[in-house]
Amino acid sequence: MKTRIELAKRSLTGISIGDAFGDSFFRDRELVESALINKTIPETEWRYTDDTIMAIPILQSLEKYGEVNQDFIAAKFAENYSKDRHRGYGPSMHRKLMDFKENKDWLSISKSSFNGTGSMGNGGAMRVALIGAYFYDDLDKVSEQAKLSSEITHYNNEGIAGAISVAVATALCTRNKEIDKEEWLNEIIAHTPESDLKYKIKKIKTLPKSYSIKTIVTALGSGTKMLAQDTVPISLWSVYYQMNNFEDILWKTVSGLGDRDTTCAIAGGISIMNSKEEFIPSKWLNNVEKWEQSIFYKE
Predict the structure, then answer these.
(1) Distance of alpha carbon 97 from alpha carbon 74, whole angstroms
(2) Angle at CA 181, nearest 5°, toward 228 and 144?
């Protein structure tokens, strides 16, 4: 068995591939539709976005402290944002990370979003899979650490629920390469806090693989609203029905369009942990921008 850090790094690599893969489909609609039909990736530099960049400090916290250190991660978020602000950060995140740089009280900033309700965006979920990989053998610890990681920027219950569900999904894939999909989904539901998101995850069982992707998007969302409850469910649906096949999972996820870099980052970070090696294209692994060599990881 690989070490915890090695497992977390593998999940982060899955996030980065999914992120860059999904981002390559933000092109002209006609071009994208043709690419999806033919399963060809539009011309791309395989460059990842904020989804991966914000996952890197979580890995660094696990390396340094063996857990989520919120102060450390918040400072790293602000530092990495200053290194490159043009990586797909959303409008509210731009403001938040600039505030982090000036004000060390990240908790007040996170809580103050959206008139004091905290953000229910998908940012907590997009970067969290590696926590599930690291603490794979303790789902209570996974949930606790995922919650802490989300609170830094997404204090709302929906945002936290999104982070927990993704981290638990990853932990289950890490601990059992041949996990039964029903058992997998039931465990995720059991550990997800009561929320609109939990209700949508329950709907996954009622949406067969044979349904058109447009029907799935209508029922579960595709990240268009950039909310946790609009983003996480379709990623989990893709893993549920394509279990063990990283490549098919990403193709199915991106076909929903919407916030495609984020839905694919989520699906990639989960599914790389139990996918068979032959279903992880070597070309994707070789071509994706290397997070471990980036200015965001190296001191």
Answers:
(1) 8
(2) 45
Domain boundaries along the sequence of the chain: 4-293
- Give the C-alpha separation, 19 to 222, whole Å: 15
Separation between Cα atoms, residue 279 and residue 138, nearest integer Å: 27
The pLDDT profile of the chain, 299 residues, written as one tens digit per residue, is: 789 999 999 999 999 999 999 999 999 999 999 999 999 999 999 999 999 999 999 999 999 999 999 999 999 999 999 999 999 998 889 989 998 988 778 999 999 888 888 899 999 999 999 999 999 999 999 999 999 999 999 999 999 999 999 999 999 999 988 899 999 999 999 999 999 999 999 999 999 999 999 999 999 999 999 999 999 999 999 999 999 999 999 999 999 999 999 999 999 999 999 999 999 999 999 999 999 999 999 86
CA–CA distance, 288 with 48 (Å, rounded to integer): 8
> Is this structure's pTM higher than 0.90?
yes
CATH class of 4-293: mainly alpha
Nearest C-alpha neighbor of 161 from the set 82, 228, 89? 228
Helices (H) and strands (E) counted in the chain, each on its own, are 18, 0
